[in-house]
């Protein structure tokens, strides 16, 4: 019963991770955030692999999923530091989220709750394919929306890591106990082998 509870809980966590990652992927696409788009894609693949391992009792897949979650926590921690401009990180100078290919920012910058966007006409500060805007009246700045999203990802990843380790340990213990009672033991029960040769006996009448 404990194994079933652990598997069900892990599947619920993976489902929440999948929904959160897909939602995040949509908004990153809208904001042309290429680095997060790539990371989200890898995360979605890892979560699907973790769900498959949970359903199919493949503890090696769960180990891979757990290792990926460690990297995922590191990536989201970097995003938090980037948007809070920790250390020498600067959003005005470093366009890491777009691989320095464009000046696009987070989609939430212009579409946050309560934000009022006003275009600045005839501005010489913008490149040819961009425009300058002013954003005011936001109930929550886009930096904090991105930080909150990354914090949710970290929280789900921590729960997923714990349950992935637990369920994979249960799967491995079950395989070891099955080997011990002769499930894969070469010295266990072996069915009688059929002979391919027929022995002819004389017939007396």
How would you describe this structure to a colleague?
With about 200 residues, the chain is mainly alpha-helical. It has helices spanning about 1-30, 35-55, 60-85, 110, 140-180, and strands at about 115-120, 130-135. The chain has a domain at about 5-100 and about 140-175. It has a two-stranded antiparallel sheet. It is built from five helices and two strands. The chain is elongated and about 75 Å long.
What is the overall number of helices?
Answer: 5
Total beta strands: 2
Q: Biggest sheet: strands side by side, in what order?
A: 1-2
Separation of the first and last Cα atoms: 67 Å
Q: How would you sum up the global shape?
A: elongated
Structural class: mainly alpha
* Biggest sheet statistics: 2 strands, antiparallel
The average pLDDT value, as a whole number, equals 81
Question: What is the helix/strand order?
Answer: HHHHEEH
Please estimate the helix content. 55-70%
Beta-strand level of the residues, as a percent range?
under 5%
Radius of gyration based on Cα positions? 28 Å
Weakly predicted, low-confidence segments:
180-189
